[in-house]
DNA sequence: CTGTTAGCGCCTTCAT
DNA sequence: ATGAAGGCGCTAACAG
């Protein structure tokens, strides 16, 4: 039962239209070297037979799949979901499809997924958010497929092109806001310091800000979490219940920052009257909380879009003027801090 | 410059290992019919030459791409991002990759993307969240590629398999919570009534709940938005500033519900003391707001996972016992309503 | 257990 | 402007 739809090929169309398959191929691919009448004949035959080109066969013959691979930590993070939207929009614009893979930031998964993507003959690869190790480089360098890093970077020489923001500087400016508000005890809610992409650089920015303002970094005011709301909540709660509790908190991402807001509130205090809080990223949540969260607005969508655009340039072998793009961020001072401008 | 890495094929490996390509193919595909020593020879050659199988060629020859297409409204919605995570996890488990496409719920895009995915010879297709029209059915029925609907359904005869929840019933139960709290003026924050997947059924549930409890549906207490936070905020604000303002609100999704919470608070009132609010979906935001949002917990991840699992069964031609899956939901009563159990 | 031989459906010179 | 023919790299019978 369920009679298999016998696949109809370019050859069938050719026969039906009374031309050669080369001609059919030409009209399908928009080659101008086809007489209008011939083209019409072919188009009609295609229409009549319901012909659907086989992209796999085309890929094998042409060595192009119009597909790019995207290795991402976790699509369920608002940050990466937004970024992916930027990628996909630009990909669509250039007629590429994306194969999406979640790596959970696990090196082994990243490597394995990258391999799988290359086997699938993707025309390009977007690598998001993971640390680039020698093993990564070995794979990246061992292929002609262009690779662009997004929301991460590789400091190594001969590094891959990337699109990101200046994490340290942004973190420093965020901390500066708190300093200028006059706070002397500024808490820090971070991620793993072993994370070279977010955790460490944002910590570094915090530290530099304090140091440049002659303030000492007190380890007791540093708490490390996993970037999630609850870890932010818990860490902030600890901080606030300690002696010498901070009067301001810089959280390295918005989820943790919102957790901190609620920790403050649950303790019967107020933001920003009692404790100022600033986050990082500017995910939708930041403007869906009371008070509205002050934060570093990271152009998530743009990072994805620009990275994808850059990748298309490599795939088309266009000349690249700028292969290491540092996008601007912006301080978005809302209601969880008192300072309204800097 | 940039000497092209000459692609090394199964044929090269065969020569290097001193066997035929068929044998190489066998070891690459884990065919047991290979003598251990031979296998080792081949494996060594593969290792030595850095051979990477070409999945496109394999796809053409085997007519399987181990790739499934996913048409989704918008990956940047928490709801769909979560669902996609479920899809991808199960896909990975069964060694499939997913090609992700955002449709923005536009019919034309959905159709065009579906076509493109079929051209790419995906082994299966997951269609999320859009309304299924005759044009969709025409494409779906015109191919042997199995199609599973997720978070949507098609009432038509000979319909596609689907995985979803009972929207009407869930909406009714959510409204019931408010009714049992004794509210007589229950506002409704909905989506377009022309949306047959969310907007209409959830409205219907609201209406049925009222009717079954002998309450009349007052159109003045119905506000329609676009599912986003701000539209929820604005609509709730209108509702609350009207005469005969509702004392409880059912919002058809969490974003709007949280908008409503803030509208109430910005008006100087309290949730749930002055106004009870219940949402729908249980996205992370629901537990990242104060008060914690009571809502209908939809198993987003599971919908994706189950749909993908179902699809694998079709792709493997396993026998399907249940092709129309209605997953259970759960009322998650937190702090934005007063009733704690039902 | 291993090798041979056809394709899979299409693109792409190269002729005509 | 069109056709003929040779791959693209691999799988899948079918022999042996």
TrEMBL record, chains A, B:
Q: Does the keyword Cytoplasm apply?
A: no
Please state every residue range assigned to the domain named HTH lacI-type.
8-62
Q: Which InterPro entries match?
A: CcpA, HTH_LacI, LacI/GalR-like_sensor, Lambda_DNA-bd_dom_sf, Peripla_BP_I
Keywords in UniProt for this one? Activator, DNA-binding, Repressor, Transcription, Transcription regulation
Show the SUPFAM superfamilies listed in the entry: lambda repressor-like DNA-binding domains, Periplasmic binding protein-like I
Stored Gene3D superfamilies: 3.40.50.2300, lambda repressor-like DNA-binding domains
Keyword Hydrolase listed: no
A Pfam short name: LacI
NCBIfam families, alphabetized:
ccpA (TIGR01481)
Q: What does this protein do?
A: Global transcriptional regulator of carbon catabolite repression (CCR) and carbon catabolite activation (CCA), which ensures optimal energy usage under diverse conditions.
Protein known as: Catabolite control protein A
């Amino acid at each position: 039962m369920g009679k298999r739809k016998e696949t109809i090929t370019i050859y069938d169309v050719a026969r039906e239209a009374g031309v050669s398959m080369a001609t059919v191929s030409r009209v399908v691919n928009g080659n101008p070297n086809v007489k209008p009448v011939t083209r019409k004949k072919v188009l009609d035959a295609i229409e009549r037979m319901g012909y659907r080109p086989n992209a796999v066969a085309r890929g094998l013959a042409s060595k192009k799949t119009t597909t790019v691979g995207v290795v991402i930590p976790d699509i369920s993070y608002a940050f990466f979901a937004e970024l992916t939207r930027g990628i996909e929009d630009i990909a669509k614009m250039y007629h590429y499809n994306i194969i999406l893979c979640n790596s959970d930031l696990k090196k082994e998964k990243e490597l394995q997924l990258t391999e799988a993507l290359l086997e699938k003959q993707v025309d390009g690869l977007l690598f998001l958010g993971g640390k680039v190790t020698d093993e990564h480089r070995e794979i990246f360098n061992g292929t002609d497929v262009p690779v662009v890093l997004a929301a991460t970077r590789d400091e190594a020489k001969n590094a891959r092109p990337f699109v990101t923001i200046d994490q340290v500087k942004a973190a420093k400016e965020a901390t500066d806001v708190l300093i200028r508000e006059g706070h002397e005890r500024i808490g820090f809610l971070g991620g793993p310091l072993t994370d070279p992409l977010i955790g460490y650089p944002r910590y570094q920015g915090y530290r530099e800000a304090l140091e440049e303002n002659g303030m000492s970094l007190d380890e007791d005011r540093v708490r490390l979490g996993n970037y999630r709301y609850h870890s932010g909540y818990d860490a902030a709660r600890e901080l606030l219940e300690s002696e010498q509790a901070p009067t301001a908190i810089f959280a390295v991402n918005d989820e943790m920052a919102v957790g901190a807001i609620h920790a403050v509130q649950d303790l019967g205090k107020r933001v920003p009257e009692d404790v100022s809080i600033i986050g990082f990223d500017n995910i939708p949540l930041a403007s869906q909380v009371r008070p509205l969260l002050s934060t570093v607005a990271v152009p998530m969508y743009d990072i994805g879009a620009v990275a994808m655009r850059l990748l298309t340039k490599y795939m088309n072998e266009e000349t690249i003027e700028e292969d290491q793009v540092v996008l601007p961020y912006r301080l978005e001072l809302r209601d969880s801090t008192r300072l309204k401008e800097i």
